[in-house]
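Anyone opening a protein record will find just a pair of labelled lines. A complete record is shown below as an example.
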Amino acid sequence: MTLLKIAQVGTPVLRTVAEPVSPEALASADIQRFIDDLIETMHDARGAGLAATQVYRPIRICAIEVNDNPRYPYKPNIPLTVLVNPVLTPIGDETFENYEGCLSVPDMRGVVSRHARLRVQALDRDGNTIDQEVAGITAGTFAHEVDHLDGKLFLDRVSDTRTLCTWKAFAMHHEDQFRRTVESVVARYGS
């Protein structure tokens, strides 16, 4: 496997709307190898997810996994999930405030309003249909990654720029309160 270079904020590919992946392309050795590299890169960078556009490939694929991630110790675990051509549909109007960071926006965090429940429709890496509901913090993680495939960064969704901070400032001044928010969201939505 190959570790891929992660694009940083300001790189044009991050503002590109990714192209759908055909079933034939998904089955190809090239795309399957790319998915392996995407997952390996996500693990190496200790990310909760990584989208193809973040590694200079504007195709509609992202990987998500949280497994006791030291970068996000408060996030509920999410099994390794590869989404191909994902479509997210909000379920209801409930939202929550999510303090987000991004591998493409190093050393920066900010508060983003996310839908509390989402329907996820996609293909997995084998071309099987995914149709599931995600909620709470997990829904925020899915929305963040799919935003990348639409050329959006979490920075675009920060409504109050006073919430922007470095990771160190987040740890010193905001993490304890955000952990309480996470506990409340998890208690309400189960994830």
